Automatic annotation (TrEMBL):
The keyword 4Fe-4S does not apply. This is Cyclin-dependent kinase 2 homolog. Keywords: ATP-binding, Kinase, Nucleotide-binding, Serine/threonine-protein kinase, Transferase. Gene3D superfamilies: Phosphorylase Kinase, domain 1, Transferase(Phosphotransferase) domain 1. GO terms for biological process: regulation of mitotic cell cycle. The lineage of its organism: Eukaryota, Sar, Stramenopiles, Ochrophyta, Pelagophyceae. May form a complex composed of at least the catalytic subunit CRK2 and a cyclin. Belongs to the protein kinase superfamily. CMGC Ser/Thr protein kinase family. CDC2/CDKX subfamily. GO terms for cellular component: nucleus. Residues 1-163 form the Protein kinase domain.
């Protein structure tokens, strides 16, 4: 898939002892000398390195290109299936059952509850940022716009985003 800051592709990770596993590689591209390291990428790396939940995509490692000003960084993550967008579009030909929809919603709400329990707001919840694998396991991804909020901060319930 392709996102705002990079391209996600699949690869095989060779582990110690010769074991192999399929991983997703999110390649971040930016002009380091001109722009510096993108704040959104830093936030995503920081949050993903601290979050552990079955319904939140897991980051295994971060790797960077070589040189004095590396402009290519890679986030090595667990593969998490297809965008929810694809599943929703496919439901036009083969509708999901009520039980399937409830199961997906429950997983999404569990992911959000896990985030909110550690004062993290995702802020970019949309179908391309919700991944579902072939077994029906849902994972929330793309934490570039996520923010950690202070535990005592008053939130304005009347505030809405532009989209």
């Amino acid at each position: 898939g392709k996102g705002q800051f990079g391209i996600v592709s699949q690869a095989v990770r060779c582990k110690r002892g010769g074991a192999k596993e399929v991983v997703a590689i999110k390649m971040l591209k930016f002009d380091f000398l001109k722009e510096g390291f993108p704040l959104e990428a830093l936030r995503e790396i920081t949050l993903l390195s601290s979050l552990r939940h079955p319904n939140i995509v897991r980051m295994h490692a971060v790797a960077c290109g070589s040189g004095e000003a590396p402009s290519e960084w890679h986030l090595v993550m667990e593969p998490a299936g297809h965008e929810l967008t694809t599943l929703v579009k496919g439901a036009r030909q083969r509708p999901m059952t009520e039980a399937q929809v409830k199961h997906l919603m429950l997983q999404l709400l569990r992911a959000l509850a896990a985030l909110h329990s550690v004062w993290v707001m995702h802020r970019d919840l949309k179908t391309p940022n919700v991944l579902v694998d072939d077994r029906g396991l849902l994972r929330l991804c793309d934490f570039g716009l996520a923010r950690r909020v202070c535990c005592g901060l008053e939130l304005d319930p009347s505030y809405t985003t532009s989209q």
